[in-house]
Design goal:
The chain is an alpha/beta fold and 250 residues long. It folds into 2 domains: 154 residues, Rossmann fold (3-Layer(aba) Sandwich), CATH 3.40.50.1220; 84 residues, 2-Layer Sandwich (SIR2/SIRT2 'Small Domain'). It is 37% helix and 17% strand. It is built from 10 helices and 9 strands. Strand 4 and strand 5 form a beta hairpin. Helix 8 runs parallel beside helix 9.
Length: 250
C-alpha cells in the first residue's frame, strides 16, 4: 500500500483518533520494550506487588528513575510526534491514545487534555494512597544523598513513578476516555504499536467493529493488518512528514 492511500484516508476523515506505541518514540532514541536491546532485555520489570511489599524493590525502582536506566525521559519529540500534534491542532484528530510513558506528545504541543495515557507517565510521580502528584525533582536529593525512599508529603503514603507497572490495575479514567474516543471516531490511526499488549490493543479492533476505518503504520506486521484499510510497514516520521501536510492541505 502507498502513502497516498493514507493521505486520502486522512483527508476524508472527520474525526481521527491517533493510537501510539513505542515505535513512534524509537525515532527519538527511546528503546522499545520487547525487541533485542529493548528495556526488558536489559532489566527485569519490577512488579507492582513487589514495589508495594518490599523496600528493596522500591529502592531499586527509584534507583532506576534517577539513573535514567529505562531511558523513558529526557528525550525530545521527533517529527512523528510533531505531525501528530499538527493533526490535533488542525482539528482533524480529536485525541491521542498512547501506550507510551515518555510525555513526548505533550512536549510536542498536544494539549494535556487530548492525550490519553493508558500506561501512565514517567515524568512525575503519584501517591498510591491519596493520588497526589509529586515532581521527581522533589525527592532526588534526599534519595540520592541519603537513601530516603519517597513518601507523600500529604498522607505519608507510598509514592511511585506515575507509570503503570506489571500487575497494577489499569487507570479507569483513561480507559473510559479511550473507549469513548474510539467509539466516536471514523478513522483510527495506529502508529508504532505491535498491538499485542492488552487491554490497550483492543481499541483498534473496537473501532473497526463499530465501522471506523483502521490504518496502521508500523515497521513489523500486526495481528490486525488484515482488518485495516491501509497498512504501511514504514518509518513513522518520514511517512507522516509526507502524508499529514498533504492531507491537511486538501
Amino acid at each position: 500500500m502507498s502513502r497516498d492511500a493514507l493521505t486520502h484516508l486522512l483527508r476524508d476523515a472527520r474525526r481521527v483518533v491517533v493510537f501510539t506505541g513505542a515505535g513512534i518514540s524509537t525515532e527519538s532514541g527511546i528503546a522499545d520494550f520487547r525487541s533485542p536491546g529493548g528495556v526488558w532485555s536489559r532489566m527485569k520489570p519490577i512488579y507492582f506487588q513487589d514495589f508495594v511489599t518490599h523496600e528493596a524493590s522500591r529502592r531499586e525502582a527509584w534507583s532506576r528513575v534517577y539513573s535514567g536506566a529505562a531511558g523513558w525521559t529526557g528525550r525530545a519529540p521527533n517529527v512523528g510526534h510533531l505531525q501528530v500534534a499538527a493533526l490535533i491542532a488542525a482539528g482533524k484528530a480529536s485525541s491521542v491514545i498512547t501506550q507510551n510513558v515518555d510525555n513526548l506528545h505533550q512536549a510536542s504541543g498536544v494539549p494535556e487534555d487530548q492525550v490519553i495515557e493508558l500506561h501512565g507517565n514517567a515524568s512525575y510521580a503519584t501517591c498510591l494512597d491519596c493520588g497526589l502528584r509529586h515532581e521527581l525533582a522533589d525527592f532526588e536529593r534526599a534519595f540520592m544523598e541519603d537513601g530516603i525512599i519517597p513518601r507523600c508529603r500529604e498522607c505519608a503514603g507510598l509514592v511511585k513513578s506515575a507509570t503503570i507497572s506489571f500487575g497494577q490495575s489499569m487507570p479507569q479514567g483513561p480507559m473510559r476516555r479511550a473507549q469513548a474516543e474510539t467509539e466516536a471516531c471514523d478513522l483510527f490511526l495506529v502508529l508504532g504499536s505491535s498491538l499485542v499488549v492488552h487491554p490497550a490493543a483492543a481499541f483498534p479492533a473496537i473501532a473497526a467493529r463499530r465501522g471506523a476505518k483502521l490504518a496502521i503504520v508500523n515497521r513489523e506486521p500486526t495481528d490486525l493488518d488484515g482488518f485495516a484499510a491501509v497498512v504501511l510497514h514504514d518509518e513513522i516520521g518520514p511517512t507522516l512528514s509526507q502524508v499529514v501536510p498533504a492531507a491537511l492541505a486538501g
